[in-house]
Design a protein that fits this description.
Jelly Rolls; binds 2-oxoglutaric acid; five-stranded antiparallel beta sheet; alpha+beta; 2 domains; binds fe (ii) ion; 226 residues; nine-stranded antiparallel beta sheet; DNA Excision Repair, Uvrb, Chain A
């Protein structure tokens, strides 16, 4: 499932991030990928573990974890520390699939990347190009969202970021290991959860709502790994 999550960061947070990123030390984005990614990746990132990445990443991770839509859709078990990237002057990241296993820091427990997230930090009118293009079983999706909004997509998909030909595209991106590894099972649980919430809002805690909520939890019990 590819899902737009509006308002992960407030406008004030976005402005604060932008201010801090203005004077940041950027490194070559190829530092965090394997050879296939490195061949098509031309962008800049904050170094993993740098004080600014840790500080701003903490804010992003807390905002996402507290976001009900992100929680319901990603069912996160663990979230890797968020990264920050910038693209300008034709920078791009060609077609790739995110690595399956990542470690937050040397010696840390490995985490499986199930759900990929981009939190946009630049508004669409600030740059040309820079669309995130995600291809799934249903076709190709082009994503360019307002600053503060996020997109989540299965880490199993081929995706790319188109060259930025005017202005600068800043973003935070991160991976989560989900309690439910399979995208289709996560999608089914998400749709069930959203429909239960609609039924509950319309009819309150009727016996049918209680029964459906029980069914959601029993499916989660069957499918979740913790
Ligand atoms: O900048 C983005 O939106 C996504 C970046 C990306 O796909 C990656 O770093 O693996
Ligand atoms: Fe990626």
């Amino acid at each position: 499932m590819i899902l737009h999550i509006p308002g992960v960061l407030t406008r004030e947070q976005v402005l604060q991030f932008r201010d801090r990123l203005l004077h940041a030390d950027w490194i070559d984005g190829r530092a965090s990928v394997g050879s296939q990614g490195a061949a098509v990746k031309r962008n800049r990132q904050l170094a993993e573990g740098s004080p600014l990445a840790v500080e701003l990443g903490g804010i992003v991770a807390r905002a996402l974890t507290a976001n009900p839509l992100f929680f319901a859709a990603a069912l996160p078990l663990r979230i890797l520390p968020p990264y920050f990237n910038g693209y300008a002057g034709g920078e791009t990241y060609g077609d790739h699939i995110d690595g399956a296993i990542r470690v937050a820091s040397p010696g840390a427990a490995p985490l499986r990347a199930d759900v990929s997230t981009t939190v946009f930090l630049s508004d669409p009118d600030e740059y040309d190009g820079g669309e995130l293009i995600v291809t799934d079983a249903y076709g190709t999706h082009e994503v360019k969202l307002p600053a503060g909004d996020a997109i989540i997509y299965p880490s199993t998909t081929v995706h790319r970021v188109e060259p930025v030909t005017r202005g600068e595209r800043l973003a935070s991106f991160l991976w989560a290991q989900s309690m439910v590894r399979d995208d289709w099972k996560r999608t089914m649980l998400f749709e069930l959860d959203q429909n239960i919430q609609s039924v509950r809002a319309a009819h309150g805690d009727s016996p049918a709502t209680v029964g459906l909520t029980g069914h959601y939890h029993n499916l989660l019990r069957m499918w979740a790994e913790t």
